[in-house]
Amino acid sequence: MSDDLNVDGVEAVLAGADGRLADPGFLVKADPGQVLRLMDGASGPPARLAVVYRASVHLHRDATAGVRRQLLALDAARYGDRELAARITAVSVKGEPAAQWGVEWATGTAVEHRYRHVALTGHTGDVESVATAVVGGRPVTVTGSRDDETVRVWDLVTGQPVGEHLTGLAQGVRALAMAVVDGRPVAVIAGNDETEGAVRVWDLANGQQIGEPLDSDHGWMTAVATMVVGDGSPRAITCDSDGRVGEWDLATGSQVGELDSLTLWVCAVATVVVDGCSHAVAGGLGGLAWVWDLATGKIGESLIGHTGDVCAVGTALVGGRAVAVTGSDDATVRMWDLTTGQQIGEPLTGHTGMVLAMATGVVEGRSVAVTGGADRQVRVWDLATGRPIGRDLVFPAPVNAVTVAPDGRLVVGFGHEVAVLARC
Known about the structure:
This protein has helices spanning 10-14, 24-29, 32-39, 45-54, 57-60, 65-78, 82-89, and strands spanning 101-106, 127-135, 138-145, 150-155, 173-181, 184-191, 199-203, 208-209, 221-228, 234-240, 245-249, 254-259, 266-274, 277-284, 288-293, 298-299, 303-304, 310-318, 321-328, 333-337, 343-348, 355-363, 366-373, 377-382, 387-388, 393-394, 399-404, 410-414, 417-423. By secondary structure, the chain is mainly beta. It folds into two domains: 3-115, no CATH class; 127-423, Methylamine Dehydrogenase, Chain H, CATH 2.130.10.10. The chain is globular and about 70 Å long. The model is unreliable at 1-17 (pLDDT under 50).
């Protein structure tokens, strides 16, 4: 909690507006109209609470108390008041389970600066890419924006910026992925710049570009993924606006292959090992997803089922079986057995708009997929059962990027902001 709200006798200070405003339970459970009436004309600490409350008031009016609890905690963190965020998360709501995710930190670039308290600021455009890495023994999250043409690095635990953000990325960042090259953590950044090279490799420890851009002749990039192949070489798989898919050796900066290319735009790509062989899985326009054998460069059978563009792709091992998870404009998430090419079970439903972001990982020992969408929701799915884990998480803006850190934390890019959530 901020210093001005953390003094002794805070309830007495707030009593002029109404002592109930000091109670997170009241803010969570009360009718929004009643809360707003009490806040009218508030000054001092109550005014700051009113600003936090009003940050997502357009969502509070129709939200359940459980959703309001999560949104209020997120907005408190955006204003830099993490103690208030924790107090709100701890509120008990009748008929609702205890909160399963708490907000560890969030940026507050878009909130009212007069009321920020040591709030983190960062991107000035939509965050469209997030990933995690370890730099100098410190876990970090790396975020990219097409609009503000920067990549930023944050301490995953504290949210503090790490080093200088990466600039000079003409035409912005469409996608990024992490790798380790010669023992150094690097970010592979895919952008829109056709004239100066669309894929750049940055050393995360010193913030310097490594070598020349990987791709100076093709069109701007739409997706990138990384992996380590059988001989231990770090590789990048890139997809460009001309429908070409390339494979690059990150240690040498040279292209080692071009896969069977497509005439359709590829929106997302991920990598996986199937039966001991490296593969890439990509999704694109027309509701299709494809699987390439990286050793032969040959494309396999299409994964057919979606009725909208496939904008998000992830891969995982579930019960020893390699699977792909795809998200689409048709608001569904589907799982595929990569050995047989067949869909696993029924589509996973719950999103009410386009699925824009996908990440796979492990949370509390379970293989999960995390999806984000235009409906401003994040959902966590248990891949073994195909069921959601907990309630959906609601955000004030569309969710364009998500990832799962190795320790199970979620990193979410929504609008201009970044938030990190951890299991309660």
